[in-house]
Write a structure and sequence with these properties.
This protein has six helices and eleven strands. The chain is an alpha+beta fold.
């Protein structure tokens, strides 16, 4: 083997007449360029031979100086280490090619994922903003017609201006939230919920609503960062639930409760306001949107609501 590339060979001439005067010569074909005449020394040593096949030839002379030119031949094979074998080189080439292919596939999948995010972003921009902007354009045309007709402002004009202002603000907020959702900045679920608390606590105070965020400390929640897609779906679902509660429930308290166990996360958004008929609301855009966002997370959302006890929205998904 390659670890046995040093050795010594002993030899002797079969001439016993005054054998102490016998002389020797040897040559390792493939290593020695010339014959080595060692005189009366009857051994040869070699070290650090490369893997390969060698022929060791040795000849001797008697005490009269007559050489046996035919001599003797010994074939020696030193096997290469496994990393120098042909099969290992082929395997290495194959593994390198496979590595490049996997890197190519990873890069391609990342590009496809970015493209999918862009497509979903375009869809969100269309759903959340284009509709508002269309309404703004329509209301603006009505204002124009009103002013042209009456040559002055009217009660209807003032109401439309208020709607335009509100929709414009909503559109700006939606744009900022969608841009945030695809921002490469990394966040955990803990960071996201703190952001939600900071974003909506002031909205609730403005409506005299008590806002509560109940969740474990950072060490008891998943530590991995959310993907841009996860961030977007969780954030927009929370936004939909809290915004609807602020606008329609007449609640005095809105809360988010977080439960995490065995990689399953529950986000429970509750209010103590006026509930609604879920069988009717599920046919509306808001409930369907929340359901779709839960499906995008690989989870599900359930909604329980009645007029006496308010509304409970429970989002469950693995993380």
């Amino acid at each position: 083997s390659h670890s046995e590339n040093y050795f010594s060979l002993e030899f002797a001439a079969l001439d016993f007449t005054n054998s102490s005067e016998n002389k020797y010569g040897y040559k390792l074909e493939g290593f020695d360029k010339e014959w080595i005449y060692s005189g009366k020394r009857r051994f040869a040593s070699y070290t650090n031979l490369d893997p390969g096949e060698y022929n060791f030839r040795v000849k001797g002379s008697n005490n009269d100086g007559v050489w046996n030119e035919e001599g003797s031949l010994l074939k020696i094979i030193i096997n290469p280490p496994f990393w120098q074998t042909w099969w290992f080189r082929i395997l290495t080439i194959f593994l390198i090619a496979e590595l490049f292919y996997l890197l190519y596939r990873y890069r391609l999948n990342r590009l496809l994922e970015i493209e999918r995010i862009k497509n979903r972003l375009a869809s969100d921009l269309h759903d959340d903003i284009a509709t508002n902007l269309s309404s703004i354009a329509m209301f603006s045309q009505i204002i124009h017609d009103e002013n042209k007709k009456f040559c002055s402002g009217s009660h209807m004009t003032n109401e439309l201006i208020e709607k335009i202002t509100a929709m414009s603000q909503d559109s700006v907020t939606s744009i900022r939230e969608i841009i945030w959702a695809i921002d490469p900045k990394q966040e955990t679920i803990y960071d996201l919920l703190i952001r939600a608390r900071d974003a909506y606590i002031m909205h609730c105070r403005a409506k005299n609503i008590n806002f509560i965020l109940d969740m474990p400390d950072r060490d008891h929640l998943p530590k991995q960062n959310l993907t841009p897609e996860e961030r977007k779906n969780i954030w927009l679902l929370i936004k939909e639930a809290i915004t609807n509660s602020i606008k329609h429930s007449c609640a005095t308290e809105i809360s988010i409760h977080t439960l995490y166990k065995n990689h399953n996360l529950n986000l429970i958004i509750m209010d103590n306001g006026k509930g609604f008929d879920t069988s009717y609301e599920y046919s509306g855009k808001g409930m369907n949107t929340m359901k779709k966002r839960a499906e995008n997370l690989g989870g599900e959302v359930t909604i329980v609501s009645n007029k006496e006890n308010g509304t409970i929205i429970n989002l469950r998904f693995k993380i």
